[in-house]
Amino acid sequence: MQIIHRISERVDGQIQNQLSEIGIEVERGLVTFEIDESHPSWKKLEPMISAWRSVDIVTTKFTANELKNATYLRMAPRWHHGYPQPDGDFGYRTVSYNLANFCSTCGIGKRQTSPIRLKGEPKWGRRHFLQLNWIFDEYFVRPEVWEDLFEPIGVGCLPVVDHRTGKDLRTVVQLDIMKTESALQISDDQPFDTCTHCGRKKYRAITRGPFPSFDVTPTSPIQKTKEYFGSGGSAWNAIVVSSDLFRQISDRKLKGVHFIPCDRMTS
Ligand SMILES: [Zn+2]
Fold first, then answer.
1. What is the 109 CA–ligand 1 centroid distance (Å)?
2. What band does 217 get if pLDDT is binned at 50, 70 and 90?
3. According to the lineage, what is the superkingdom (predicted)?
4. Residues bordering ligand 1, an ion, CB closer than 5 Å
5. Residue 266's pLDDT band (boundaries 50, 70, 90)?
6. What was the pLDDT predicted at 264?
7. If you measure from the C-alpha of residue 167 to the centroid of ligand 1, how many angstroms do you get, rounded to a whole number?
């Protein structure tokens, strides 16, 4: 596992000298550089970027073995494509969701009751999975991927509708992913927000290290977490798959998603 920080900072002479003193040479001006937490200068750099309030985007790279050995893995999108329709004024929410429990301040609580509508067939390119913009807790696949991979393991699919004609699209279906009852073992220092309007809790996206494991091992090969993630008005449940499903997706070289191992906490 490699934890990588992509740091952006406006570098003046003073900052340039401070960085140089810990062995990091950069130009002046708006600078972006990447550093791994195993780098000898990281421990010295960490308090500096915190004091400067630098932009710090954290990602984690896992080894093939770490992915292979995980019992469960979070499935994350490699791309976002298209917008649910109608896209004006978030009209898709009222068309495709029951909003009785929905809070527009934090984005938690909408429940899908009708098919998602799109402007037309997705432009898949060479990919097999897609995630839409705005809806970060659903996956869409080509129908042949659903038949080959998901139907045999009991995962349903929902039609996706052409917004203009009202007819089902031919090259895309939505995976019908259920929410698990099991809580995640999230560490106490994981940042979260409590909604000022509805009081519900939403975690910031977890990008450093593995994803948390479940309290109770799930019975489904693919499920949504009951916990919400996101910031501002965006809220989504993470999608977690079994090692077996991960292996099948990897063996078929299906594109459009990547994986983060879930780690069972020992304490
Ligand atoms: Zn709320």
1. 8
2. confident
3. Bacteria
4. 103, 105-106, 195, 197-198
5. very low
6. 65
7. 34
